[in-house]
Amino acid sequence: MRLPVLIGLFLSSAGLAAPVAAVETDPIACWWRTSASAVRVGQTFDVVLTCAVVDNGAIVVIPDESGLDASAMQMPPFEIIGGKHPADRHTADRRFLQYGYTLRLIADDSFGKDIALPDLQIKYQIQTRVNGEAVKGRALVYLMPKQSVRVLALVPNDAPDIRDAGENTFDEIDARTYRADLLSVSALVLFTIGVIIALVAAVRLIGRSGRAHPARRHFVSDRRILRGVARELSAVHSEREASGWTEALAGRVTAALRIAGAYALARRVSQTVAARGADAQDGQLLFRSGRARRARVLVSSSVTAEALTNALTGTNGSSPRQREDIEQLQLALSRFTANRYNRTADIDGEALDESLDSATQLLRRLAAGYGWLKPLTSFTGSRRWAD
Q: Is residue 31 part of a domain?
């Protein structure tokens, strides 16, 4: 039954200023769906009744569902064995309701005939809102379209399809949706496992590549080395105040300044894993590498005061502060090298104190902002620091 629903009329009666054009639509539409188009006598099959009614807030179609339940429905000559009523579904302007029935036919005079489902009338009312109040219209009747099932025949005469169609109930849709979600999650889990396996394989491959070239291994980071050199100079300063300058203290400062000079010239420092029980030799500083397995690493450099002097000749275009830092390192390394290896000369304590203080301040500044060390590479034309 097709009824015009004049939405614009209802809105204007509700006191809206702007009228809306009338839209003609079906307030209710229902259809049958059978699990089989042809059955044998006594064979059970499913019949599904689905209805779509208007439900948009302003207009609500209220069908009478009291006679649609399987316990109240009568469909002679078919016998209703069972039924189900899934939850309603809603869209923006429609509500879908569904009832399923399990039927069978027991009759000895139906062979080779098309047996129609009994005529079904669905009563409903149209509820609208006028001045904010819900108003129900008169009772209307919707006549279900005809649907037949052939007994012991190929296809009934009024069958819309040659092949039997699926039920497509709400429960079946939910089951398919659940299965699709489960497969999607499984695929995502398998993909994640594959990515993890690939990452593990890549890490192991990189690890093997690193072990194949031990000369390229980098045990202690440059930042840690610079901070360690600064701490070494601070420790020497404390010991010097306690016992004065000694040959051993001068040697420790010389080793620290050579390492700092290597970074100033963008050269590599030497890193060697120390044997168990071995101590740092002359010109070396001892560091700890790693967390769980703390390896003992000996760091040293072959940079001399002469190398720093030669680097100063190529500082054209550098900032005055950069040149001053290189000059401080060169002067300090020259003084400590002279006192370290010239056994006949007296130790100039004041000069060494001055060089130690300036070198300590320089190393602390470089360690705190290691990022600005890179401009110093312009002294040698290199753009890369020690790896």
A: yes
- How far apart CA 43 and CA 152 sit, in angstroms, is 10
Q: Are residues 91 and 71 in the same domain?
A: yes
Contact status, residue 261 vs residue 303, Cβ threshold 8 Å: yes
Total number of domains in the chain: 3
Question: Going along the chain, which residue ranges are E strands?
Answer: 28-34, 38-39, 45-54, 59-63, 79-84, 89-90, 94-104, 114-116, 121-130, 133-136, 140-143, 148-151, 270-273, 284-289, 295-300
Position 373 scores a pLDDT of 42
Place of tokens 């000059």: 327
Contacts of 281 (CB under 8 A, 6+ apart): 298
What pTM was estimated for this model as a whole?
A: 0.42
Mean pLDDT of 370-380: 45
> Which of 1-15, 126-140, 141-155, 185-199 comes out lowest in average pLDDT?
1-15
Structure tokens at 240: 């010097």
Shared domain check, 113 and 208: no
Q: How many helices (H) and strands (E) does the chain have?
A: 7, 15
Range of the domain at 353: 222-268+304-379
Q: Which CATH number do you get for residue 137?
A: 2.60.40
Task: Tell whether the model's pLDDT for residue 371 goes beyond 70.
Answer: no
Answer yes or no: is 193 within a domain. yes
